[in-house]
Amino acid sequence: MPVVKNQNYVHPEFLFGGHLQTIVPSVFRTVPILPFERERISTPDGDFLDLDWLKQGSDNLVIISHGLEGNSRRPYMMGMADFFFSRGYDVLNWNFRGCSGSTNLQPVFYHSGATHDLHTVVLRAKSGYRNIFLVGFSLGGNLTLKYLGERAPAQHGVQKAVAISVPLDLGGASDQISRRSNWLYSSRFLKSLKAKVKEKAKIFPERIPLGDLSKVRTLRDFDNWFTGPLHGFRDADHYYQSCSSLGFLEGIAIPVLILNARNDPFLSESCFPERLGETLSGVYMEFPTTGGHVGFSPRRVGFPFWSEKRAFDFIHFD
Q: Which pLDDT belongs to residue 300?
């Protein structure tokens, strides 16, 4: 399917660059209070996941996955949940391990390729619904695409999916976010990740030695010393090569939409694989000129975020 040449997104005039289009909705967006019901489920390896449900008796469920160091209550998660819920869907916002406010039980955390946890969530949810759809943001988008690419539809039962602001090439995106112009983002992520490692090391000092923490200056460093080895990869390169959803797109057998803004400060050029997109029958790639990272703010106050409307239209109508 050729890359979708859809330039319908028009950013607000005062958000004139990728950084503003990323930061302003993240910091200043207000979202309604939603009546989430929390459920804690066990994982096959003796850990737990915290799920936040919005239920109204629908036959259709959308499962939404957050980004790096996010959680189920981030504004972008709440906004997408509200958009679908107000249009008749049940919604499940789930938290990756260690992201719900409670330290998880195992020494491992979440990571960009941990599709076993997403599969646990899908299996928990699928028995109660006729149709299941997935929406993933950033790291959660990579997780969503990898999950769908490595399993046949009969194994997951998902009908459609949307992935937004996706680091399709984890290595390229990791290096991109570590550029000097992106210092604000990378330093924020590293501060949060280092704090989690220190807390977990108190419980599992033999599994998580902190001697290498002083060497961590970039996200690649963190993945090289912690994410990779802790989760069974040799190093950061092995982790990136094994988990980048770019390598799983050809295995996807249901309709999916990838929304990546060209001015996303987190994404490298390798996250816009137009040539590959032209060879895939069910993977739609839409690369608007602007939008930032998990941004796509409405042009006027009171209008829906463009990414929410686009995700809903793809799932509900296309």
A: 87
Same-domain status, 73 and 193: no
What pLDDT is attached to residue 2?
A: 52
With H, G, I as helix, E, B as strand and everything else as coil, classify residue 315: helix
Please say whether the beta carbons of 8 and 289 come within 8 A: no
Q: Is residue 6 part of a domain?
A: no
Q: What is the pLDDT of residue 7?
A: 59
Torsion angle in degrees (nearest 10) through CA of 267, 132, 25, 172: -10
pTM over 0.70? The answer is yes
Beta strands in the chain (DSSP E): 37-42, 48-54, 60-65, 90-94, 131-137, 158-164, 256-259, 283-286
Between the CA of residue 77 and those of 26, 175, 232, 241, what are the distances in Å? 11, 26, 29, 28
Are 317 and 35 a contacting pair, CB within 8 Å? no
Spatial neighbors of 99 by CB under 8 A, at least 6 apart, are: 66, 69, 70, 71, 72, 110
Cβ–Cβ < 8 Å for 239, 225: no
**What would the mean pLDDT of 51-61 be, rounded to a whole number?**
97
Our measurement of the distance from residue 179's CA atom to the centroid of its chain's CA atoms, rounded to an integer in Å, reads 21
Q: How far is it, in rounded angstroms, from Cα 130 to Cα 60?
A: 6
200 and 89 together in one domain: no
For residue 177, give its domain range. 172-243
Pairing mode, strands 256-259 and 158-164:
parallel
Contact partners, residue 190, CB within 8 Å, separation at least 6: 216, 218, 219, 222
Which amino acids are annotated catalytic? 138, 264, 293
Pairing of strands 131-137, 60-65: parallel
Number of domains the chain is built from: 2
Same domain assignment for residues 79 and 163: yes
Residue 111 lies in a domain: yes
pLDDT at 211: 87
What is the residue-averaged pLDDT of the chain?
Answer: 95
Residues 304 and 194 in one domain: no
Q: Note the pLDDT tens digit of each residue in 243-300.
A: 999 999 999 999 999 999 999 999 999 999 999 999 998 999 999 999 999 999 999 8
